[in-house]
Amino acid sequence: MSCVPGSAGLPLIGDKSVEYYKDPVLFVENRIRQHGRIFLSRILSKPTVFVASHVGTQQLLNDCHESIDLGYKALMHKVYGDNILFSDGSEAADLRTILGDIFKKSETLQLEEKINQLVNKSLHSIISGEKLCAYKYFKKLTTELCLTLFLNLDFDKSKQLAEDICSLTTTHWHGIISVPLDVKIPFTHSTSTFSKALEAKEKLLEIIDQKLSQESQGFPNFMKEEFNDKKSAADHLLLLTSALIPKAFASLLTSFVLATSSHVKRDLQEAIDNPAMMDALLLEVQRMWPPFQGGRRLVRKDINICGYKIPKGHAVVYSSYAAHRDPNVFAEPNSFIPSRWLDRKVEDRRQLFCFGGGPRGCLGTQLILTILKSVCTSMISKFTWKVEPDQNISYKWMPVSRPRDDVQVIFKERLAVTFDTDTRSRAISL
Fold first, then answer.
1. Are 292 and 401 in contact (CB under 8 A)?
2. Beta strands at 46-51 and 38-43: parallel, antiparallel or unpaired
3. Distance between CA atoms of residues 57 and 178, nearest Å
4. Per-residue pLDDT tens listing for the chain (430 residues)
C-alpha cells in the first residue's frame, strides 16, 4: 500500500484548520491539483486524510465502517447530548434499530398530507411580484414543518411557545459554530456564545420533556414507546428539532430555486407531470450543492482507501462536494444537467452522499425527500420565479452550503396554462 501524499506538518504550526474552515471547497480543490483526490493534512491538531474521490468515499462509508468511528463527539456532544451522532459499534446499531422503528411507525401518521397542508399554507403567504430572501424563507418554512412533525407543535394555537422555541434553537445552533468555551466574562453580566447555547439546550429539553409527558400520539409518543428512558428520547428529539435540519432543507431548497430560475416554464411543468423529472432535478441539486461538505471519521483500525494506507489514530474527512464533482463518475461535473439521472437505475442514487452513506447513512432520508418534493412541486404549481439581477450568488460552505449574501428572489403567480412535456431540462453551466 502507498503512503498518502501531502503532509500533516508539525503540531500547532502545521495545523490547517483555519484555512480549511474558511473555505473548505477552495482548500480541497487546491490540494487536489497538488496531490490528487486523496491527500494528507492536519486539522484540529490531528493528522487528517481527505478523501475527495467518488470511489474512495464509497469505500470509506461502505467497506470501512467497522474500522472507523464518527468524529463529531469532541465537537458537538456538549451541545447535543447523548444521541446517535455520538455512538458507535453495538450502541449505534441498537439506536438505529430504535429510530428505524420510529420512522417506520411514522408512516401511519399520513405525514405527506400534513406536510402538503403546511407547505401550501406557507406558500399562500408569498406576495406575488415582491422580493424575498429565499434562504430565510425556506428556513422559516422548514422550521415550522420540523417542529410540527416532531413535537406536534401547533403554530396557530401556540404562537408564543413556537416563537420561544425558534429563538432557542437559533441560540443553540450558534453554540455549534462557536469556540466551545463555557465561560462568563468577568465583571459583566455577559456569557460566551457557547455558554448561551448550553443554556438554550437546557430550556429546549425542558420543553421537550413537557411534550413527552403530554403527547399521546405522533413522534413524541413513538419516542416514549421505543426508548427505554425518557432522557434518550429527549436527546434525540432535541436533535430532530434543532436548527440543523431546517438549515439543511433551506440550503437544498435555495439551491433548487437558484438552479432552476433560468429554466423555461415547460421544463419545470414537466417535473409535476413526470415524477422522474422531479427526482432528476432534486438529485442534481443534491449532487452539486450538498448542504454539508461531507463528514469526519476517526480511524481505530488501519484501513485501505484506493490503495493508500490510513493508520489507526488518524482522522478522515470525506468531501461530498468533491466526490459529487468527480469527473471519473460525472460527465461535465460542474454543469447542472438533471437529465443525466433520467436513464439511470434507482441504485445509482447511491452515488450521492448528500445524506451520508453505508450503514451509518441518514435514517430519515425518505421523509427528507417527501418534504423536498412537496415544497418543490407546490412551488412549481403556484409560481414562476427569477433571481434579481446583479446579486452575488457565490456560495459559502460552512456551516451549511448557502449563498454568501441574502439572495433576493421574485415569485410570481403562475397562470393556469398546460404545457406539453416533450422537452427535457437543458444543461446550465454554473
1. yes
2. antiparallel
3. 28
4. 789 999 999 988 999 999 999 999 999 999 999 999 999 999 999 999 999 999 999 999 999 999 999 988 887 899 999 999 999 889 999 999 999 999 999 888 889 999 999 999 999 999 999 999 999 999 999 999 999 999 999 999 999 999 999 999 999 998 877 655 444 444 444 468 889 999 999 999 999 999 999 999 999 999 999 998 999 999 999 999 999 999 999 999 999 999 999 765 666 888 888 999 999 999 999 999 999 999 999 999 999 999 999 999 999 999 999 999 999 999 999 999 999 999 888 777 789 999 999 999 999 999 999 999 999 999 999 999 999 999 999 999 999 999 999 999 999 998 754 445 454 444 443 4
Amino acid at 384: T
Q: C-alpha cell of 32? A: 487536489
